[in-house]
Amino acid sequence: MKRSDLVIVGGSAAGVEAAIIGSRQHGIDNITVIRREQKVMVPCGIPYIFGTLGSAEKNILSDTLLGDTELIIDEAVSIDPKAQSIVTAGGKAIGYEKLILATGSQPAAPPIPGRELDNVFTVRKDIEYLQSLERALDYAETVVIIGGGFIGVEFADECKRRGLNVTIVELLPHCLLLNCDEEFCIRAEEELTKRGVKIICGNKVSAILGDHRVKEVELATGERLKADVVIIAIGVAPDTRLAQQAGLEAGDFKGIKVDLYGRTSVPNIFAAGDCAEKYSFFTGKPVGLRLASIAAHEARIAAINLFEPRVENRGAIGVFSTKIGDIAFGAAGLTQRAAMEAGFDIVVGRAGAVDKHPGSMPGAQQLQVKLVFDRMSRRLIGGEASGGVSVGEVVNIVATAIGNGMTAYQIATLQIGTHPALTASPIAYQLIDAAERAFPSRDW
Amino acid sequence: MKRSDLVIVGGSAAGVEAAIIGSRQHGIDNITVIRREQKVMVPCGIPYIFGTLGSAEKNILSDTLLGDTELIIDEAVSIDPKAQSIVTAGGKAIGYEKLILATGSQPAAPPIPGRELDNVFTVRKDIEYLQSLERALDYAETVVIIGGGFIGVEFADECKRRGLNVTIVELLPHCLLLNCDEEFCIRAEEELTKRGVKIICGNKVSAILGDHRVKEVELATGERLKADVVIIAIGVAPDTRLAQQAGLEAGDFKGIKVDLYGRTSVPNIFAAGDCAEKYSFFTGKPVGLRLASIAAHEARIAAINLFEPRVENRGAIGVFSTKIGDIAFGAAGLTQRAAMEAGFDIVVGRAGAVDKHPGSMPGAQQLQVKLVFDRMSRRLIGGEASGGVSVGEVVNIVATAIGNGMTAYQIATLQIGTHPALTASPIAYQLIDAAERAFPSRDW
To answer: What is the ipTM metric for this complex?
Structure first.
């Protein structure tokens, strides 16, 4: 039986990152990656296949990233933790010294009657499946998207780029409400509406109707919407079939239980990414976050800690960004609503200014920032932003500040660089302003 | 005699920010700002007047930022620290409870013969003066810029946008060498050269020649360059005339000496911005940094600390960013060269990847990052980046990490958000990669 010092099951963000870091940090020269897919989709790129990128072939995660790693295209079907070996569907047996499970997730499938009809799709990370969605959209006029989270919203925006009639049906009162506070959700909805996307919130699809192929969806309120294609984007569930077979413990959110070093309940087996249970940076409690950036983060931690504990996973902050039309949105940590639900006594600071300076610089765009602080400790526990493309890195500053436990005054006196073509003015830098506004001395 | 609870001398970045924060933090409702200029130039915007913006009128710092602050356009000529009052050139006397000096800087004037000729300009923050430069450039074909620091480089790029023949003469072996390591300087020079800017490094202007008006410059090597206009951009010197008159102590770099709360040697007088002495975050020693972002930072600290010490200035990190052609450059903290000169034993990590993902996303651009760590503590002490517009905020993440004393492993496991249109891929995020590459476990 072939043996590898490090075997990784799964070839998406967590699997690839684990292989890269295992090789680079420890110099392991016989890493094996086992994955089902011939070609791996860039997970966050999937919605962009259908508009911006133009084809699934342009959204492939290159295998060159794996370097000298041995790649086995096969399905791992069982683990023998005592013998430290894995068997694949193709009958291969591979021994391991260390094993990292990065088996990812499967789209959550809601119990909606009719979801088995043709042209009803979930968001699977599978190139052939996504190509069949491409073909279906080629012949479609009207698309209904079930779920107005960031994946649903991105699909809506991209389908609009194809010139389709698009409707989002979202259960909650607003799109993006799990990621952003209402004010940002409303701004996103306005942008979607401006682009011609129809949004139905506070409602749900009770049935998908059609004869072999979908024709309509029926809402809980009885209304019917025409639909040539339905895309279900209501989240994902961890794929833990292999872990369950091996007797690994699972957590409250059905992910593989891991400790703060990424180790599972069985020696020499680690888990990272969507298949692993996540814990909140803020409360320590299990959370349902599933993001490629978290997957890569956990893979780095697991891979660094393979032979001895070195770095701790302090819990997921949860950092998200997206772009709708010309406006980017981002959030890190707790929204105001989530913070209040978690029992924090909070103080909010807001600021807005153009993202270049002076405002007459070409391409200047409003950048709005909202920061959420814990009242007593004055620590930053969340932040949201909307604006131009710099929002992606602005929320990463917010995340860095949260991770470092920075207080409002520390952020109000953050040292930053500014430039007319790249950032807000030094006297109107949004993060600093929002922090300073949150705690005026005169109120204390 | 009129008395104000807070008087601020100077109306540029530090002065305006001090007024805003004084009002907002403490609720002071009778702030007075004394400044010389009718109209204040956005300091960092000055080079952009001559190309991108098109006129000095588009680069005015709006007085609306001052809110209810009383504005006196006049020159403060003397302070009586005992009486806590100021006299202006116009004969006004104003009493103060707290005084913040934000008198800024003057362009450094090198002792080059001929610098008094017509069409030889320094970079003064004065609208009429800059308008006379605009007019001179309108009739010019050939411009020589003395100094290849970031102001010089920005002027070169903008003069090129006007279609002028532009030559930079820089004393050091490369442009931008005080801000960036050689590899980034070379990339900047390549971009400038591609845009048609002629660069002469390791040389200096020994004389400016002409008859009433400049015609040529002569280099130390004897070469002569035609010049219809000469722009001298070799840095600034603190303007401490008023402070000297009042008997305030000065530091080694000629700035007004301040403590870590922004207080000068005289009670109730603070100083902030270019006029104040700066100390290095890394060594505690005086440094020659003069940036609008540092000015605003010091103004916030002084204004917050007006009535009692609340926040400390931990020393200037020095964060800079600029854009040349389509490439942005940024740096925070110590360059590799500066770190070595300061006696640090360093380890460097580098990484590069596209700033969107997959690389087929429209507008994707290479983003290169270099991080400099202290070997023993593994703490980040500097970082540089080049790439698209996100560089401005990427170096602000670097600065935030430096300010928090983050180690390589902490940065290698930084929690960030990623998105196809906004950032690198989660498995190729440059800051994280560069930190992780700097310290492979197998080397320890």
So the answer is: 0.97
